[in-house]
Amino acid sequence: STITCEADKFEVKCPPDHFIKIVNALYGNKNPFTCYRKTYKQLTNKCDSKTATDILASRCDNSNYCSVMAENKVFGDPCAYTYKYLKVDYLCLNGLLVLAGYFLTVNTDEILNELVCENEEMEFSCPKGYTIEILSAMYGRKDRRICSDPEKNDTDCEAYGSNVLISDRCNLRQQCRILPNNDLFADPCIGYRKYLQVSYRCLRNHDILSTITCEHEKFEVKCPPDHFIKIVNALYGKQNPLTCYKETNRQISNKCGDSLTTTDILDSWCGISNNCSVIAENKVFGDPCVFTYKYLEVDYLCLNDITGKPSTAPETKRKGLYLEDFHIHLPELRTPISHRLLETMPDVSHLVVGSMPEINKKKPNRSAKSSILGKKNKDL
Fold it and tell me: What residues does the SUEL-type lectin domain cover (predicted)?
């Protein structure tokens, strides 16, 4: 993400052999503290140009470099007599190969960026079968234009250990949610408004194991000796009407469930344990859709106590069809597909189900685990 104040130049350059893909753009004013100017009369802080994304995409998509002035001549004036800014979310894409159409895959070299102001929730995710790797994280204040404060704006600060904290929370997960504030991080500059900036990438993980447990049944998993469970993603609810289908049950909804909440709950039950069993029921996970027969779908890893690396999973343990298993011909598409769009593809995971063999449990070495879930910052 990048923010450009009105009358300044928005400029972006991707690495060699990469091209720009505009994900979203806002030209207007949604936050009174962003690009704040005391001398400028603000009539509103709730406006945006509805065509900013299309306009910027027409100028920048598929180019390696792009520069555009953030001004009314380009985007129109969504709110007169109000100082505005241009906020842009974009990707630098590479590695999407054309082969009889498009071969759908995720470029693991693609660096993704997220930015939110203090006390605003941040969410980011990878497609199914991929896990997050945090590259850098900064909570503090480095740029006076971002999340600006009308009273205190000139400072340069960063919370000690930001990268380690975010890595511990998000690495090896499919999705991650963070609420950045001074309770989560030590306050690096008291009295100043701060923001959280995160860079990450999505890594393909063939060692992910999956299981589906119908409502009221027991979810049970055991890892090999000297290994512990790492929950990658979990969903309690219903996303597929054919999964755990029962004719006798009235189905009110086929689309319900919060995977981030389910993952947090299951991680509190099973995280860093060698084995785990939980009943898939509303008492544990809450009821995301009443009068609907639900299921618990879990993706997890078995990590070695010492190295933190997954155990080698036989191909028979893989559940579902993966994107690299087949080619899809999409002649109507004219631009490559980013990993964010892959999440809209239909769920076919119920077609193939793998099972985990029973293995004698052994108490894990917990002391080694806390140090290997997150990537350590060399500067700390």
Answer: 4-93, 116-203, 213-303
Shared-domain flag, residues 142 and 223: no
Cα separation of 227 and 268, whole Å?
Answer: 17
> How far lies 320's CA from each of 204, 236, 348, in Å?
15, 18, 6
260/177 Cα distance (integer angstroms) = 7
What is the tens place of the pLDDT at every residue in 169-210?
A: 999 999 999 999 999 998 998 888 899 999 999 998 888 998
Integer angstrom CA distances of residue 304 from 93, 315, 375? 33, 19, 15
Asked whether residue 81 falls in the same domain as residue 125, the answer is: no
Is residue 134 situated within a structural domain?
A: yes
Taking only the tens place, the pLDDT of each residue in 251-299 is: 666 778 889 999 999 999 998 899 999 999 999 999 998 888 899 999 9
- Domain assignment of residue 370, yes or no: no
Torsion of CA 47, 51, 54, 57, to 10 degrees: -40
* CA–CA separation, 71 and 12 (whole Å): 17
How many angstroms separate the CA atoms of 373 and 174, rounded?
14
Name the residue among 103, 139, 143, 89 with its Cα closest to residue 119.
Answer: 139
Q: How far apart are CA 262 and CA 256, in angstroms?
A: 12
10/74 same-domain check: yes
- What pLDDT score was predicted for residue 106? 53
Shared domain for 198 and 125, answered yes or no, is yes
Residue 258, domain CATH: 2.60.120.740
Domain boundary among 303, 338, 368: 303
CA gap 293, 252 in Å, rounded: 9
pLDDT at 249 over 90: no
Phi and psi at 20, nearest 5°, equal -85, 140
Q: Which of 237, 293, 294, 284 is nearest to 264 (CA)?
A: 284
- Mean pLDDT, residues 127-155: 84
Is the pTM higher than 0.90? no
Domain limits at 158? 111-204
Same domain, 261 and 294: yes
Same domain assignment for residues 199 and 216: no
Residue from 239, 347, 346, 353 nearest 293 by CA: 239
- The total domain count for the chain is 3
The Cα-based distances of 105 to 13, 179, 183, 188, 218 in angstroms read: 23, 30, 38, 40, 34
Tokens of 266: 């299951």
Assess if residue 343 is contained within a domain: no
